[in-house]
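Progress note, project year one: complex with A1CAB.
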Amino acid sequence: MPSNAQLAFIGGGNMARSLIGGLLADGYPSDQIRIAEPNAERRDMLASELGIVPSASNTDAATDAAAVILAVKPPIVRSVAEELSGLIHKQQSLTISVAAGVRMQDIERWLGEGVAVVRTMPNTPSLVRSGATALLANAQVNKAQQDLAESLMRAVGQTLWLDVEEDMDIVTATSGSGPAYFFLLMEALEDAAAEQGLDRERARLLVLETATGAARMALESEDSPGQLRQRVTSPGGTTESALNVLNDHDFHTAIGKAVKAAADRAEELGNLLGEQ
Ligand SMILES: NC(=O)C1=CN([C@@H]2O[C@H](COP(=O)(O)OP(=O)(O)OC[C@H]3O[C@@H](n4cnc5c(N)ncnc54)[C@H](O)[C@@H]3O)[C@@H](O)[C@H]2O)C=CC1
Ligand SMILES: O=C(O)[C@@H]1CCC=N1
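Model obtained:
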């Protein structure tokens, strides 16, 4: 990506830290990244972890930025957008939102007409450059800005552009929140192995290697996850016994309901904030 593009992260929380960590690991120069973070303790932590000293001022961080990344919680996006609107207009910066649920039309309304906005949904594995990000651009985004957003997110993982904004809530429920579902499965599997008598250290190693191996195999295989699962499941064997229990507990249905709840919450956040 163009390493001369000045990036300003507004909000230095979990998602910003993952994106910045991934960018630095990809070789992005740290002097081209600014962070605004109101919490002093958090600023100290980011400075020691990332080697970038954050500012307490959003406008200081955003000054001269080619891209301003709004990485605050959804209810805070409006105040930050309104605060930075004048500066963003003056500099013609690209605004990139990572906020769940917050709709393009509202970001545009808060920033004022004519601002180039890319709405994105990244995820925290961006920290290790294994992120998955969906992007959506408004009509004001020019080719160079689209390339900038694409290369920023591509530096930390895979990207895909959406055709319709409605898909963003499903993406949020799938890949935005998705790492938590896999971490929960890892926790549960580790606990189960420990309860059966395996020491924690060995249990964790086996669980993490199994998760990595399964993901890598599914990524590299022509076969679907369902076909790969069947190949682990010998008739009358151990896996079948385990999967029968998961089926008895409606595992598949539970995941479906969980993802729907997340997508519904994203829509609800969008509705709530859109009314403001
Ligand atoms: N955590 C995740 O896995 C993902 C989060 N997101 C989105 O990223 C955004 C941030 O989420 P997290 O990083 O998880 O939250 P977080 O709470 O860890 O980070 C938000 C940061 O913004 C700071 N902040 C609060 N008010 C501010 C203001 N007025 N100006 C500047 N900074 C301010 C807070 O001190 C905090 O450090 C949210 O909109 C969320 O929907 C998107 C994808 C994944
Ligand atoms: O839980 C959340 O609301 C954020 C958005 C996707 C992941 N974390």
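Residues 10-16, 36-39, 42, 58, 71-74, 76, 79-80, 98-100, 121-124, 176 surround NAI (ligand 1) (CB under 6 Å).
The chain is about 55% helix and 10% strand.
No further modelling is planned for this target in the current period.
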